[in-house]
Design goal:
- The chain is of the alpha/beta class and about 260 residues long.
- It is about 35% helix and about 25% strand.
- It has nine helices and twelve strands.
- The strands form three sheets. Strands 8-9-10-3-11-12 form a six-stranded mixed β-sheet, with helices on both faces.
- The protein is globular and about 50 Å long.
- The model has no long low-confidence stretch (mean pLDDT about 90).
- The structure holds adenosine-5'-triphosphate (ATP).
- The site of adenosine-5'-triphosphate has 11 residues, from strand 2 and helix 1.
- It comes from Marinilactibacillus psychrotolerans 42ea.
- InterPro entries: AAA+_ATPase, ABC_ATPase_HisP-typ, ABC_transporter-like_ATP-bd, ABC_transporter-like_CS, Ectoine_EhuA, MetN_ABC_transporter-like, P-loop_NTPase.
- One of its GO terms (cellular component) is plasma membrane.
Length: about 260
């Protein structure tokens, strides 16, 4: 069996005295798409931000493609905190798309996309531009290459943010509620782009979402998060139609009741 692309081992996170994640073990296999669902404040975003190194781990380890993210191993096999250089190298396999896009407002769409390939990967501008345009074409926005983010709709901004993550060719791509800041009529176009990426197969995905129908359609697995723990983890049909724990049953019932038609 091939190595998991992501492996959390007893991962714990505190913000001061507040424990947000409690000894979580979790894996994502190569090419696997995993959706995270769960109540607000249960720790899903923090869980994902640790993988992107946007929050610091308190205890436990995370591996990406068999390499420790937050640690380095010496000759004796002992772990010590990773150097910035190591952190940056391992982290470059991970991409993230945020709820609120996080585009650079003073750069055009194309400049937003080619910035990281040039500054982080050292690509030549010409090559980065060619690749950036190909990816923009993929998300249906080639005609917007030279406009600024303020001139785009929310759905278009999010598609640019997705293109910006994709251009770095991450092994694992995190989506943190990518449609929850959008007007309902703009949700579909973003979900369509995410589904296309999922259908292409090779990128592993971690998708935090409240869109249960979408999770069911795209994810190979759904993990239910509650109170800093993964309470259930299984196929979409097991999780959504055959929940075992009372917490998941309650969540799904509550969730369905608060959904607008
Ligand atoms: N930087 C921070 N400092 C202190 N507490 C934080 C910080 N970030 C998150 N928290 C707390 O950690 C807990 C988990 O938050 P997190 O955003 O991970 O949950 P979530 O499941 O993603 O919620 P939502 O679905 O609302 O986004 C919450 O109690 C939150 O207030």
């Amino acid at each position: 069996m091939t190595e998991p692309i992501v492996k959390y081992n007893k991962v714990t996170k505190y913000f001061d005295d507040l424990q947000v994640l409690d000894k979580i073990d979790f894996e994502i296999q190569q090419g696997e798409k995993v959706a995270l669902i769960g109540p607000s404040g249960s720790g899903k975003t923090t869980f994902a931000r640790l993988l992107m190194t946007l929050e610091e781990i308190t205890d436990g380890t995370i591996e990406v493609e068999g390499e420790y993210l937050w640690h380095e191993k010496n000759e004796k096999g002992e772990l010590s905190p990773a150097s910035t250089e190591h952190l940056r190298k391992v982290r470059s396999n991970v991409g993230m798309v945020f709820q609120h896009f996080h585009l650079f407002p003073h750069m055009t769409v194309l400049e937003n996309i080619i910035e990281a390939p040039i500054t982080v990967k050292g690509k030549k501008k010409k090559e980065a531009t060619k690749q950036g345009k190909e990816i923009l074409d993929k998300v249906g926005l080639l005609d917007k290459a030279d406009v600024y983010p303020a001139q785009l709709s929310g759905g278009q901004k999010q598609r640019v943010a997705i293109a910006r993550a994709l251009v770095m060719e991450p092994k694992v791509l995190i989506f943190d509620e990518p449609t929850s800041a959008l007007d309902p009529e703009l949700v579909g176009e973003v979900l369509e782009v995410i589904k296309d990426i999922a259908d292409q197969g090779e990128t592993s995905m971690l998708l935090i979402t409240h869109e249960m129908d979408f999770a069911k359609e795209v994810a190979d697995r759904i993990a239910f998060f509650d109170d800093g723990k993964i309470v259930e983890d299984g196929s979409p049909s097991e999780i959504l139609y055959n929940p075992k724990s009372t917490r998941l049953k309650e969540f799904l019932e509550r969730f369905m009741n608060t959904q607008t038609p």
